[in-house]
Amino acid sequence: MSAELHKTPLLDELEKGEWPSFVTQMKQMAKKNPMARDLLGQLEQSYVDKITHWKHGGLVGIQGYGAGIIGRYSNLGDKFPAVAAFHTVRLHQPAGWFYTTKALTDVCDIWDKYGSGMLNMHGSTGDFVLLGATTDNLEPLFTDYLKAGWDLGGSSSDMRTPSCCNGMARCDNACFDTMELFHDVSMSYQDELHRPAFPYKFKIKIAGCPNDCVASIARSDLAVIGTWKDDIQIDQAEMKAYADAGVDIAGEVIELCPTQCMAWDGSTLKVNNAQCNRCIHCINVLPKALSPGKERGATLLVGGKAPILEGAQLASVFVPFMKMEAPYTEFKEFVEKLWDVWGENGNNRERIGEFILRVGLGNFVEAIEMEPDPNMVLHPRENPYIFYEEYIEEGDEE
Amino acid sequence: MAVLRETVRDCLRSKDYEQVLYLARRERRLVRTLVSLLYDGEPLVRWRAVTAVGRLAAAEPEKVRPLIRRFIWWMNNECGGIGWSSAPALAEIGRMAPELLRGAVRVVIHFRAERMILPGVFWACGRLAAAYPLEVREAVPELTGFLADEDAAIRGQAAWALGEIGDGRAREGLTSLLGDRELVLLYDGEELEMRETGKISAEALQKISADDHKQGRGTDLSTGSLGRIGGGGKKGEVGYVS
């Protein structure tokens, strides 16, 4: 290979300023990898032309798998031959993104051997995103990753790689073991992950508490968010200690409570737990004094997604409270019912949230054999011309 | 779900398609399971899942109808999927339930955009030859061109398809492959077998000759063009203007 780098006057501008620059990192790799060198050249050309030079996707993959590799081809292959085929490989992350240095070294060594040497950590599904492999190198790199204990992540119309916060490993608020659920789901649904059979993608994200650090409610088809059923635990002595230390409990906690369910008389905190909506603000501000209740589990919400076809949607509550303990039988039954109904009736490229919008929440709830629950209502009805026949008939009889 | 998948996998290994159809009537997850087996790591299971999809299309077309758009999408997917078996599955649907595929058959036959799934597309052309003779014969010149491809799987599947189609225009190209010793994995609708590309070509040439003989055509059709319905053959069949 020629060690000479392409001239990149426009990209060079991105190296100026206070922040680390991806251009600088790519230039480092370009000294030893021709793919990185030509990627810089093509990117500079894109800045000049003000258009991407990646062609439409392209189908590539591993035999036995229907997902995990995203095909990418350059339309400037003659000029930048090293990136003519520059496929992305998704590598399934471990629960909570905990790695040993040996594991990380293995990933990078294999990627240096077969790919561009460049990667993102992590993609929005949590995977390693390994950027740039040729078609011929896909099978050998996959074999090496398997030998080293790794596997591909999800893509296409499959169950995408689940993701979770690192829950009990680092956080007192975790209401269940998010990492154990993540691992269990991933291992239980290997076929759903690697062999697309759904109408479209299905994402499961797992958060240990209502802070929802993985933003599951906004970007997953099934959000599992830790919660508690009983009363917030209060250590009144610690409350007093916070007050003595100068914390403005009334201003920073009581007045900010969205349901106004708390009272503070200067020495004792009282909570009307029936009114608490689990916003978890008070626990965040006063972590030594307050903690989630003892009866812990998760709320399951369905239908969230980022905007593609129907615009962004937040997930809706389907199961207000479910115990989350291995082997997660109740959880899996729920997941599989969702897949049964949506998998059978969903349109091509229709996310489950869009499907629910199309068929109506009531019909969907009936189809998955759940009892309607007031928690499923997004907001009070706004159409006065809906009549509840059963209700009217009961009234007539009276 | 894993239990159902293993059950179906066993059915496919033993070619017990009746049991698969029976399960399809009882288990709503059967279709999804079958679709996922189209990617199975065991090649024979993968191919027999293709056969099973076709049989299901004949027995219960409404269960399969929604899959047609999905399979076509997976042949054009831009979000990291690859429909290894999409074209073969569509072919079996078209072969066993021709009406289901009528609006999409040319999409399958003329698909050339993705090299990795071209062998499956060519297999589909061969399997659709009887149900859609007119449409499939449109693809003969292109298929013949792929006989010189650098990839043995593409050459071999194209040669096999041309034999199934039985079109004399492929004779010259097939003859040039007779010495090709590279091996190709070929599914005949029941079994998988490693075959030499040259032998596949020889058999294809024999089929073309047999078809010519059956239809009373001359033997030299290398310059023949697609002609009118019924010309030289039985009423309703494709013939050639010689």
What does this molecule look like?
- The complex is a heterodimer of chains A (398) and B (242).
- Chain A is an alpha+beta fold.
- Chain A has 4 domains: 9-49, no CATH class; 69-147, Alpha-Beta Plaits (2-Layer Sandwich); 163-228 and 297-376, Sulfite Reductase Hemoprotein, domain 1, CATH 3.30.413.10; 233-291, Alpha-Beta Plaits (2-Layer Sandwich).
- Chain A has helices at 9-13, 22-30, 34-49, 101-114, 138-147, 167-170, 178-188, 190-194, 216-219, 236-244, 249-254, 281-285, 329-345, 352-359, 361-367, 389-397; strands at residues 69-70, 87-91, 115-121, 128-133, 163-164, 204-207, 222-228, 233-234, 262-264, 269-271, 290-291, 296-302, 316-322.
- In chain A, the strands form 4 sheets. In chain A, strands 5-6-7-12-13 form a 5-stranded mixed beta sheet. In chain A, strands 1-2-4-3 form a 4-stranded antiparallel beta sheet. In chain A, strands 8-11 form a two-stranded antiparallel ribbon.
- In chain A, α9 (216-219) links the parallel β6 and β7 (222-228).
- Chain A starts with 8 loop residues before the first helix and ends with a helix.
- The model of chain A has no long low-confidence stretch (mean pLDDT 92).
- Chain B is mainly alpha-helical.
- Chain B has one domain (68-241): Leucine-rich Repeat Variant, CATH 1.25.10.
- Chain B is built from 14 helices and 4 strands.
- Chain B has helices at residues 2-13, 17-26, 30-37, 43-59, 61-74, 86-96, 98-101, 105-109, 118-127, 133-137, 140-145, 152-165, 171-176, 197-215, and strands spanning 183-187, 192-196, 225-229, 238-241.
- The longest helix of chain B is centred in the last third of the chain and has 19 residues, at 197-215.
- Residues 218-242 of chain B have low confidence and may be disordered.
- The A-B interface holds A 56-61, 63-71, 88, 90, 135, 155-158, 188, 191-192, 194-199, 201, 336, 339-340, 343-344, 348-349 and B 1-2, 5, 28-29, 31-33, 35-41, 66, 69-70, 73-84, 114, 116-117.
